[in-house]
Design goal:
The chain is α+β, with helices and mostly antiparallel strands. It has 6 helices and 15 strands. It catalyses: a uridine in RNA = a pseudouridine in RNA.
């Protein structure tokens, strides 16, 4: 069985262990974790734990996961927009509507399926069979640059750069409202929403530090075109932060208005435009630009009244 060791930090003291695990093991469903409790596969300080157990500071939580819980992922001949490739890594321009790695309900048509066909067996194995080569991800309806690792050496190097926030990540976005400031910084720890589990939220128990810098590029009356620079990389960070200051992304019905003013728009208007990092073997800084997708450019023209 696979053994996962977790340490409870002070912010979780007094919370139920099932809530703690649902937060820190977000790739696993609550029903799957509940099954592990029933089968005695979760221990606290060496003793089998019940889901209702309250976590104490510095508790050692161990989860024993059964082998072969992950389905076989098949290579698929899906075209890739490759911005750069060598024997260590590749940078792809992910299209809108594509899921990065397989998960419940998405075991085909993902970026990983396409990468397995393109790279054959040349993908890092650090993140397991569901996420070979994947060191970071962007949301299904977010477009843009994503680095994929072919070797474990590349993966370890990129993961460390992500950890110390040294990777350059600049996004383009269109938000609701006219942002008054030309530049600004949004800070607020991000964690799983306490009630709506598909959402993240700011300033919640167990949240992790998050910092987003923004710069206004153009104003379109009731909308603003901005660049966002990530200092950290939390789940849904840009979407959550901008919503928290009253400027949700245009098209983001999860964190913004439930009805999009542009019915043909699919999901949030967010594009990972610039990605820069130190190459794992040459040690040279490399930077890549993913051009704005066609839908984004057309929407800008419409907002400017040019169409």
């Amino acid at each position: 069985m696979k053994r996962i060791c977790l340490q409870a930090d002070p912010s979780w003291a007094g919370e139920r262990i099932d809530k703690f695990l649902a937060e820190v093991m977000e790739d696993y469903s609550r029903s799957f974790l509940q099954k592990q409790f029933k089968e005695g596969n979760i221990t606290v300080n060496g003793k089998a734990a019940k889901a209702s157990l309250k976590v104490s500071e510095d508790d050692e939580v161990v989860v024993f996961l059964p082998e072969n819980q992950e389905p076989d992922i098949e290579p698929e001949n899906i075209p890739l927009d490759i911005l750069y490739e060598d024997d260590q890594l590749l940078v792809v321009n992910k299209p809108k509507g594509m899921v990065v790695h397989p998960s419940a309900g998405h075991y085909s048509g993902t970026l990983v399926n396409a990468l397995m066909y393109h790279c054959k067996d040349n993908l890092s194995g650090i993140n397991g069979v569901l996420r070979p080569g994947i060191v970071h991800r962007i949301d299904m309806d977010t477009t843009g640059a994503l680095v994929v690792c072919k070797t474990d050496i590349a993966h370890q190097s990129l993961a460390e750069q992500l950890k110390v926030h040294s990777i350059t990540r600049r996004y383009r976005a269109i938000v609701h409202g006219n942002i008054k400031e030309n530049t600004g910084t949004i800070e607020g720890a991000i964690g799983r929403h306490p009630v709506e589990r598909k959402k993240m939220a700011v300033n919640v128990r167990g949240g992790k530090e998050a910092v987003t810098h923004f710069k206004v590029l153009e104003r379109y009356g009731s909308y603003t075109y901005i660049e966002c620079r990530l200092e950290t990389g939390r789940t849904h960070q840009i979407r959550v932060h901008l919503s928290s200051v009253g400027h949700p992304l245009l098209g983001d019905t999860l964190y913004g208005p439930k009805k999009c003013p542009f019915p043909s728009l699919q999901g949030q208007t967010l594009h990972a435009m610039i990605l820069g990092f130190i190459h794992p073997t040459t040690k040279e800084y490399m930077e890549f630009t993913a051009p704005l997708p066609e839908y984004f450019v057309k929407l800008q023209r419409k907002l400017k009244g040019i169409c």
